[in-house]
């Protein structure tokens, strides 16, 4: 009898640990974070982006930034923003003329899918984030792109 009772206690403890781990992982995923942490910015080696305005192109990434100083300047700019995950991509643009569409390539050869930053939204990989200390400074991005053309 005692042996069966111990089995139930162990089973309950294992289930409780699994549930707590799930709750902690989900909380960590949805808490407010630095944008650069979400982007894994320290490993970026190239930023591919579309020349603006977007309407003039067929969707291909026709520009890139790969020198480390320019990437660091962009990362420093991104570091001022905090984001909070709101779920999977479920996005309707409110500001189609104020978007920065990009792809990130990492040192380990990972490449993100098309990503977007708008005034108050970041789409990265399959997730959608709200910029909590926005709005996003689109004018700075325009100036940055102009300097790197």
What is the average of the pLDDT values?
89
What oligomeric state best describes the polypeptide chains here? single chain
Q: Please report the distance between the alpha carbons of the first and last residues.
A: 77 Å
Biggest sheet layout: 8 strands, antiparallel
Provide the domain count.
Answer: 2
Shape: elongated
User: C-alpha Rg, in Å?
Assistant: 21 Å
Helix content: 25-40%
The portion of residues forming beta strands comes to: 25-35%
Strand order of the largest sheet: 1-4-8-7-6-5-2-3
Number of strands: 8
Total helical segments: 4
Class from helix and strand fractions: alpha+beta
Structural account:
With 149 residues, the protein is an alpha+beta fold. The protein folds into two domains: 1-30; 33-147. Helix content is 37%, strand content 26%. It contains four helices and eight strands, in the order αβαββαβββββα. It has helices spanning 2-30, 35-39, 68-78, 138-147, and strands spanning 32-34, 44-49, 63-65, 82-88, 100-106, 115-117, 121-124, 127-131. Strands 1-4-8-7-6-5-2-3 form an eight-stranded antiparallel beta sheet. A hairpin with an 8-residue loop joins β5 (100-106) and β6. The protein starts with a helix and ends with a helix. The model has no long low-confidence stretch (mean pLDDT 89).
List keywords for this structure.
8-stranded antiparallel beta sheet, alpha+beta, 149 residues
């Amino acid at each position: 009898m005692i042996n069966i009772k111990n089995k139930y206690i162990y089973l309950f403890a294992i289930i409780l640990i699994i549930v707590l781990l799930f709750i902690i992982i989900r909380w960590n995923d949805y808490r407010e974070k630095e944008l650069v942490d979400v982007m894994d910015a320290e490993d970026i080696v190239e930023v591919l982006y579309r020349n603006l305005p977007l309407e003039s192109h067929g969707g291909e990434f026709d520009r890139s930034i790969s020198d480390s100083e320019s990437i660091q300047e962009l990362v420093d700019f991104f570091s001022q923003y905090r984001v909070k995950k709101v779920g999977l991509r479920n996005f309707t643009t409110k500001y189609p003329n104020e978007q920065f569409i990009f792809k990130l390539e990492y040192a380990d050869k990972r490449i993100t899918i098309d990503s977007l930053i708008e005034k108050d939204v970041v789409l990265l990989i399959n997730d959608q984030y709200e910029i909590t200390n926005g709005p996003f400074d689109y004018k700075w991005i325009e100036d940055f792109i102009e300097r790197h053309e």
